[in-house]
Write a structure and sequence with these properties.
By secondary structure, this protein is mainly alpha-helical. It is built from 27 helices and 9 strands. The protein has helices spanning about 1-10, 25-45, 60, 80-85, 90-100, 105-130, 135-150, 165-175, 180-195, 195-205, 225-245, 255-260, 280-285, 305, 325-340, 355-385, 390-410, 415-420, 430-440, 455-460, 475-495, 500-510, 520-525, 530, 535-550, 555-560, 575-580; strands at about 55, 210-215, 215-220, 425, 445, 465, 510-515, 565, 570-575. The strands form 3 sheets. Strands 6-5-7-9-8 form a 5-stranded mixed β-sheet. Strands 1-4 form a two-stranded antiparallel sheet. It has a two-stranded antiparallel sheet with strand order 2-3. Strand 2 (about 210-215) and strand 3 (about 215-220) form a beta hairpin. Helix 7 packs across helix 16 (about 355-385), helix 10 (about 195-205) runs antiparallel to helix 11 and helix 21 runs parallel beside helix 25. The longest helix is centred in the middle third of the chain and has 33 residues, at about 355-385.
Length: about 575
């Protein structure tokens, strides 16, 4: 009986007056923080496990911030200028501040997710208590939430979208607390780090102006709702005004007509948006909702609407504040459809559902699971009190439940399994090349169409002419130049006329060319979809056609003569050597 009594304490609700001071709350709160600590330390350990390892999106959004530490890095670099210009003000200021303290951006990016995850977990735990005042339930929600955000490439990237989680969690907590000033601060910070979520927050404040009564929406009679909405709208306007008035070089975005005409936005293009199947639309892609596919247990969230009014004992403890989950969903979907309608003025529609849904589903699933656990406990208690024996079927089902619970907790936490896979870490494949380039002057320029070239700015901190990772077609002023640079790189590498290669080297002041040993085979270019499904694909296929006819590129003949680094897979050619070769 003592074990049954102790188990019962797991789902005893706490009175609102003692919600944050009860011993149960302290215990489950500490356990929640330990979950984030585990995921954070394991991820940090992996980030330092090799010399040349980096999270995928760090290559786009963090590497260029090394300029704050060393202003001589990436001089006159189009790619660096582009990503640094587009980075939100708050994000840049944060990394600039850390750089002034002597902390390098790439190093900070490996440690920062643990801190951001900690803040998000704190706010989410106490927010959960406001809508479901059972500490073990808040822990279960925190567990699922951490599984979702760590088995993902958002938080771990230390990019602007990493800041969404602590800032949005803070916004939700202060909203149910009805604390105006903290709400406005969180709204402002969200706009400074990730403006799309600021629009979702304003949309949530807008949805809260309505109440659902007798099957119809009616305007709220609470004057505070209108004051919060107007205040939030005012802060949002002030924060977004610089974006609205921006007339910088890269401020003009591609139009919808241009997107439809460009293969880059088509099926399997570099910036795929159109032509996706329904499954892709639901779970992935920039045009879709992007529901979390893993951990799959969060899909229990869809049972909450049906159980909220049920007779299950714990369901009745879900508070009135839980309606905020519906408000988040309505606001997010509203902005999602508006982004589709105004495409591409509000950027990608998935930005408005991807993050907010990763709050709603773990919260709703955590409530459902605790209700299920408590119902199962009551059934077991009844069995024990009546001393009834388990049937074979009941024993089998209990075993399945135990196995399921074990899998749910352990599998998402296995470091070498799905965790690092979903975090999208990139391990460099050409250490000799990185090491050589890092010892060269800081103003050198490397040209290549090899996928490994994507890693050169991160691992060597040297400039790149163009590559797949940085070929984003959203801003014509940028992409038109990247497109021409890529065409010229292909011409330099595959032309049989050495004078063409020399002229391109001189045009861009290229210092080194990185080529793969198998790059002179026709199928090499065919396998690179960012080239074959691009606006310049005619040039790519013309090059493939010449190779298939047996034309020998001039660089292929110089691969030994002008090589400065040679590995089993790559050859790094010195441009100065190429320009000195006399033409026949």
């Amino acid at each position: 009986m003592s074990s049954i009594t102790s188990l019962k304490q797991l789902w005893v609700p706490i009175k609102s007056s003692k919600l944050f001071s009860h011993p149960n709350t302290s215990f489950w709160f500490s356990l929640s923080l330990s979950v984030n600590l585990y995921f954070g330390l394991v991820s940090i350990g992996h980030g330092f496990s090799q010399d040349y390892i980096v999270q995928d999106d760090v290559r786009q959004h963090v590497v260029w911030l090394q300029r704050f530490v060393d202003p001589q890095l990436f001089p006159n670099d189009l790619i660096a200028d582009y990503f640094q210009t587009l980075a939100p003000v708050g994000y840049k200021f944060f990394y600039w501040s850390m750089a002034k303290l002597g902390i390098e951006s790439i190093l900070l990016a490996k440690i920062l997710p643990l801190v951001l995850g900690f803040i998000a977990t704190v706010y989410l735990f106490f927010f959960s208590l406001k809508i479901f005042p059972i500490p073990s339930g808040a822990f279960l929600i925190s567990l699922l939430f951490n599984q979702v955000i760590w088995n993902n490439d958002d938080l771990i990237s230390a990019t602007p979208r990493s800041f969404v989680y602590p800032l949005f969690a803070a916004f939700l907590y202060y909203l149910v607390q009805r604390s105006l000033i903290p709400i406005l601060i969180s709204v402002a910070l969200q706009g400074l780090f990730y403006p799309q979520l600021l629009l979702v927050e304003v949309a949530i404040l807008t949805v809260r102006l309505f109440r659902w009564q007798r099957g119809l929406p009616q305007l709220s009679q609470d004057r505070q709702d209108y004051f919060f909405w107007l205040s939030g709208l005012g802060v949002a306007f002030v924060v977004l005004l610089p974006f609205i008035l921006d007339r910088s070089e890269f401020s003009t975005v591609v139009t919808l007509a241009q997107m439809k005409a460009m293969p880059e936005f088509g099926f399997r293009g570099r910036n795929q948006y159109f032509g996706v199947n329904p499954i892709w639309f639901i779970f992935m892609g920039s045009s879709g909702i992007k529901l979390p596919l893993f951990p799959s247990i969060v899909w229990f969230a869809f049972a909450l609407p049906f159980w909220h009014k049920s007779q299950l004992s714990l369901a009745k403890f879900v508070t009135e504040d839980a309606k905020i989950l519906w408000q988040i969903v309505i606001a997010s979907l509203g902005m999602f459809f508006l982004a589709h309608l105004l495409l591409p003025k509000l950027h990608l529609p998935s930005r408005y559902t991807h993050h907010s849904i990763r709050f709603v589903m773990p919260i709703a699933a955590g409530i459902v699971l605790l209700v299920l656990l408590e119902s199962g406990w009551r059934w077991l208690s009844k069995k024990r009190l009546t001393k009834a024996k388990f049937t074979r079927k009941e024993s089998f089902l209990l075993g399945l439940v135990a196995l399921f619970a074990t899998i749910v907790i352990i599998v998402p936490a296995i470091p070498s399994g799905v965790l690092f896979l979903f975090q999208t870490w990139i391990v460099g494949d050409a250490p000799a090349v990185y090491e050589f380039l890092s010892k060269q002057p800081k103003n050198i320029l490397v040209a290549s169409i090899a996928q490994e070239a994507d890693n050169i700015p991160a691992f060597s901190q040297r400039s790149l002419l163009a590559s797949r990772e940085f070929a984003l077609a959203y801003h014509p002023a940028y992409y038109n130049r990247i497109q021409q640079r890529t065409i010229d790189t292909i011409r330099a590498q595959y032309s049989s006329d050495l004078s063409v290669t020399k002229s391109i080297i001189q045009k861009y002041s290229i210092d080194f060319l990185l080529i793969e040993r198998n790059s002179f085979q026709p199928d090499y270019l065919l396998k690179q979809e960012w080239l074959t499904r691009s606006s310049f694909r005619d040039s790519v296929f013309a090059t493939i056609n010449r190779l298939e006819k047996g034309e020998i590129p001039a660089l292929e003949k110089l691969s030994d003569r002008c090589s400065v680094v040679s590995t089993e897979k790559f050859i790094l050619l010195e441009a100065a050597c190429i320009t000195k070769v006399e033409e026949n």
